[in-house]
What we know:
The chain has 682 residues and is mostly helical. Helix content is 35%, strand content 3%. It has helices spanning 70-80, 87-96, 98-107, 113-120, 135-148, 152-162, 176-189, 194-203, 205-210, 230-237, 266-275, 333-345, 350-362, 369-380, 390-399, 418-428, 473-476, 489-494, 497-505, 513-518, 532-537, 548-555, 588-594, 623-630, 649-654, 666-675; strands at residues 37-38, 279-280, 308-309, 319-320, 326-327, 414-415, 581-583, 606-607, 616-618. The strands form 4 sheets. A 3-stranded antiparallel sheet has the order 7-9-8. It is globular.
Amino acid sequence: GAVGDKTDTMELEQAWPDLSASTTSAAVTAAALLAACGGGGGADSGTTAPATPTAADPLPSMPTKPAPSRRAAARFLSQASFGATGPAQVDALVAQGYDAWLTSQFSKPAALHVDYLNSQRGRDQKAGEKPQISEEMSYEAIWQQWLNGEDQLRARVTWALLQIFVISNIAPDIRPAAMSSYLDMLNRNAFGHWRALLQDVALHPAMGYYLNMLESEKEDAAKGTHPNENFAREVLQLFSIGLIQLNADGTPKLDSAGKTQPTYDETVVKGFAKAFSGWSFGGLDNTKAGQFHNHDDNVEALWTVPMKAWAGYHSSADKTLLDGKTLTGGQTPEKDMADALDAIFQHANVPPFFARQLIQRLVTSNPSPAYVGRVAAVFVNDGTGTRGNLKAVVRAVLMDAEARGDSPAANVAKQREPVIRFANMLRGLGAKSGSGLNRIQYLDSSDDALGQSPLLAPSVFNFYSPGYRPAGPIAAQGWVAPEFQISGETAVAGSRPPDQARCCHRQQDRVGQGCVDRHRPQPRSRHPAMKRRHLLQMGAFAALNPWAQMRALAETAPAAGDYRALVCLFMFGGNDGNNLLVPNDARYTAYQRARPNLALDKAALLPLTLSNASGLALHPAFTGLQGLVNGGQASVIANIGPLLQPTTKAQYDAHSVPLPYNLFSHSDQQGAWQSGVVEAPP
């Protein structure tokens, strides 16, 4: 059906607008193959999307360089692709040279994930049923590109971008059309301009849905509502500039007292949230106010075109942005969007922040400041006066002296993350899918899969933090090793080679059919209950320092006929701690004031009898836990967190004491709790 019909479209189309020249003030002007460690608007009436930069002109070819050795060529392919398919491909790169290979890869057309969905529509359905697409097809499209695609460099860069500009179907509820269209968008922008990429990310309905910018509306004082801040917060913290000011080489910029300086505050987050308000699906009629919220989300075509603005839902207030910049109230939503994205694009943090993350995803977890600085300088100016030319940035990352050579420094290395390791193995062994579909799906379980699966990151913070450092020799060197955050004992045991081999050689589809059988129960839980062998595999966890006192208590001799056990339950999201343990004394008034729409009825709370505290109660659903606490069989430890030392609010505001890395990042603090390792920023 046509866009806006109440029926599913039978053939998805990509309707992303061509990029045109920006008219805003901030316009763009300016080595074993299988080793575990890797080398080193539509036609509808109404407003249109703000203008974005055009793709850069091709850069001049680099001077001819000596042919690489076979060892160096193999390292290069491990960084710039999903692995060599065999010695012949390594020898071909030796003969061709890096520059010619890069030039060839830059010119290869992108794989089209939405086209794959259309080709598979209805394949698993019974005769007479309406042909549908499924999320499994979206996952397959990724593996088709990774394992079979000729555009290996684009695929590898797109995977890196997906881990920076994260969307995830872990819920699961992002439509297949949205996920595959988002991958197509990243593929298109992989060698384009960063500013265009940022806008396409911001206006894609998959991102709008995932981070709640879709249908975010202006503030309403009478209702006590304000624009959703989720996308505004993450686009600053995770996608573009980070939490602290950086020098051009990515090192922290310190003040006169030697302290780091924040890049923004809550006022800025609220300003960006207002600037981003008033956008809904692009396939709707924005002259009809009712369609902003009232529409059929099951129309597939809505998920493949950029969002569109509704002026009546956009904040008309003044908006404070970065570095003191203010947008005067009353601008159109398109103008506010363009100005807000330009403010991000021109921020001094973007070049080193992005450069470091791209280097980490492709080459090494610990690039030197000089390496980051050189790549950031290319981001600022590609040699033709253009800022944000991603083709030039990718070339700079891969061709930097620190990345190349037969004998890189010890720190020029990274662990191959699980999916890349798996793809390397399949490509290196020439594994083929009997059905041709590569049904490799749901590898996110660390129990019996890889602990990582494309489009199934546990949160917007990706699978791991770029600043994660495991305890031991790596931390002692002051290095980071992001991928080790998902390479604990459980993951290593769950993804051991025999499991991978079974996954590759079951039934008729020799690549991944077993993964379908083993990882596709109906209905499927994204977070299966922890099994007893999980706890056994994580036995070392009890020895971690933060738990030493509780461990000692658990190991003391029990009374006759009794026993002691240390049971650690990690609430993997969904637990509202402030409504689990609630004050029911004079402090209840402050609690109620802080949570006007969420506060529990005081009369319904379950009072606790504690030897070390008073005036506390439980959520009314926890009657069993109340009995354990009041019976002396359980207790409460409150006001704890992964701090490096006791810290007051005044000390936090003044940055006068060491603070954990990304203190208010859920995933980073989650990792601290799970590993027992709390680290200050690198």
